[in-house]
Write the structure tokens for this entry.
Amino acid sequence: MINATAAPVTDMDAIDRLRAIGREFHGRGWSLGTSSNYSVVVSRDPLELLITVSGKDKSALGRDDFVRVDAAGRPVDGSGRKSSAETLLHCTIAELVPSVGAVLHTHSVWGTILSGAELPRGVSRGRLRIEGFEMLKGLEGIATHDTFEDVPIFANTQDMTELAARIRADFAPLDWSAPGRPPCHGFLLSRHGLYTWGRDLAEARRHIEIFEFLFECVARGRTLPAAGGHAQQQQQQQQQQQQ
Amino acid sequence: MINATAAPVTDMDAIDRLRAIGREFHGRGWSLGTSSNYSVVVSRDPLELLITVSGKDKSALGRDDFVRVDAAGRPVDGSGRKSSAETLLHCTIAELVPSVGAVLHTHSVWGTILSGAELPRGVSRGRLRIEGFEMLKGLEGIATHDTFEDVPIFANTQDMTELAARIRADFAPLDWSAPGRPPCHGFLLSRHGLYTWGRDLAEARRHIEIFEFLFECVARGRTLPAAGGHAQQQQQQQQQQQQ
Amino acid sequence: MINATAAPVTDMDAIDRLRAIGREFHGRGWSLGTSSNYSVVVSRDPLELLITVSGKDKSALGRDDFVRVDAAGRPVDGSGRKSSAETLLHCTIAELVPSVGAVLHTHSVWGTILSGAELPRGVSRGRLRIEGFEMLKGLEGIATHDTFEDVPIFANTQDMTELAARIRADFAPLDWSAPGRPPCHGFLLSRHGLYTWGRDLAEARRHIEIFEFLFECVARGRTLPAAGGHAQQQQQQQQQQQQ
Amino acid sequence: MINATAAPVTDMDAIDRLRAIGREFHGRGWSLGTSSNYSVVVSRDPLELLITVSGKDKSALGRDDFVRVDAAGRPVDGSGRKSSAETLLHCTIAELVPSVGAVLHTHSVWGTILSGAELPRGVSRGRLRIEGFEMLKGLEGIATHDTFEDVPIFANTQDMTELAARIRADFAPLDWSAPGRPPCHGFLLSRHGLYTWGRDLAEARRHIEIFEFLFECVARGRTLPAAGGHAQQQQQQQQQQQQ
């Protein structure tokens, strides 16, 4: 079984690890249809990524279903293959967050509907606050449950250039080099899905798992009353107001 | 592992791919009991389909559990096997939509209850509107999230001749030959299940996945409040009224 | 892979099929802990059943985890093994329903909470009405969606003798020999689980699948609003009043 | 396949059984990210535990991912490995409950949100009452459904010494040696997860299964109306008031 933890030695190692990610994430309902895209950073100077090609069933990625691109998202491996439509987002993240070794983008039901609930039409930027959960410690640099993570939500678009610019405007002013906890660990595209990353593929995969778990907790928690009948949501609102 | 993507070369290839579909869909909760039926178009002139026989456990289809039928749904392979009770619907779809290479019919919880919610008793035709989701792009010819798909819902019946006529009356006036986005990608039978199709089995399977994901998003989204308490459903209603 | 469809030839065949059922049902969340019990009728005159022993993990049943019992639930194979605590219920069902070849009892979340919702404390008998679903046709003898199945719900107890007598009082007056649709296909024990049966293990397994699917549809359907906001539950109540 | 039922003969047996638990629990959504920790008691006099090391992916535990610790949670095997951050809780449980052979800690969505709903901020101790379910009989020493289990909920913290003291203050006055039903079978850490134990790993695993099933029943049951519209929660409240 492919071990997503070990650092890939070669491009082929990285490819096989990404193929394993695809099978796993499809089985978990996070990469259905031909949705999702995954990349690893294979070179930092110059910046180059290995990324999934466009429109492939992630449960059955072959070794030819990847393409090597430069910082502008242009293929540099002469394969003629068409990289993912969202390649520019991967490149933007890898550029803005110097520690990034892998970027994963998935489409889950909970991420899709939570991001939709938080961002009414006409609003271009929102956030999903996740607080008080022990599982927040699964996000790199977080050492306590007594905190919150504000997950940026960007309104979805088909214009990747425009979206990359919006993400850049949001992320560039933040300090991504400080040791410890980074400004954020991922973002949502409204009614679309989750982008997250990590120093390596194992960390990125862990972040997907943690975020998906937390999304489900937040969503289910909103409609779960306590035994005495007080809605959890009311409690959360009171707690947020005390922040 | 059977690759549902490659075009079947022989009837036996098609059979083995459909058997793999059965195992997969049963495991995913979409083909429980002896429900569901699957077909591939094996000849266009004359129109002939290979379809699952009636009343079989889809998790354990054998190579003998298929029958070849003509455009009227009559067996033409001399096997004496009884084709699916809904054979006529597969034939009707294959006839009305000239690009169809495969038709898949499944029974999921979300599809069953959503179609029931939208179609009160006594109403023979309704629709389920799915809009604003990136995953709509998994339906062939849709290139943006900023659109909607109206999934026709037909009241269920045991009279397949009558139902086929209703579907024909609905579909025949539409332009299925225009390039790009087709009039629709599937329909629901109320409190029964989903019919979808594709140019080949891979596309039909992808459409099942996409529709099931979207059904779950629509259903769960209706009762998910935003953090501030405004029901998503209210937002959707406002958005629909602006349409 | 064990084929649950073929009629068992020997007791060992039956045992291996029941072990496969256990692995499958545990994986599907219906036989967790050491819950559940399964039997096949191995003799009709005299009536003898092969049944799971008490207190075993159903995901790992060994060949020694079964015992042969008579119509009174007493072991007759000299093994010294202790049969399931609910053996008497299996024997009662097998006796009252002459066509029974297998009896399966499972514990699912949906069956547990639906039966609890329908039967407040102090009420000893209720019913869960399931109507209008195409999947009802997965229950033997039902040929249309345009019908309903009233699933009896018996208040739970630890006194199997008393419970068997209650079931007998309920079932004995009914005509189980008429061809076609039987009086019912299963019953629920409140906040406990589902009992169902079939002419053979394949039919009993199909009935478990169908009931579990329908329980989930009923439960989820009760809180699913239509797009326009009218609760499905209100529609169902109106429909039931018109019955 | 590793049989979690047989008593481990050697430390390596115990390790392989815990690795199997990790794969299973990760697949079931109870040990995602690098959450959870598992231990077995390998010596009673002096008390020594074999426990998972800190920060490992439970789906891929290697044989080196365990460490042997003493009653104070200090490593005694000279490996230099860092044991789980929550080691002290395992040691405390093993010390207070003399029959304990294994302790399992998991993070599930239902346990996380139920414990959060029951324990508003600022409250350090609560309980989750689970009553009337047949599945309660899966907890050791419980022989009837007609009872309830109050699962203690402790407010979460990062200070394990303080938490261990709180658990000790709660558990030490109770009689853990009486035969039959113990004072409780597990506890929840609010918005964190479940701790449970057993005489051996099989019993601890069974307790995790039973608790997770019951958590799901309690949570889903709170928002499931009866067919006639009376919320189950109202019924439960009436029943609890009669206690």
About this structure: Chains B and D do not touch (no CB pair under 8 Å).
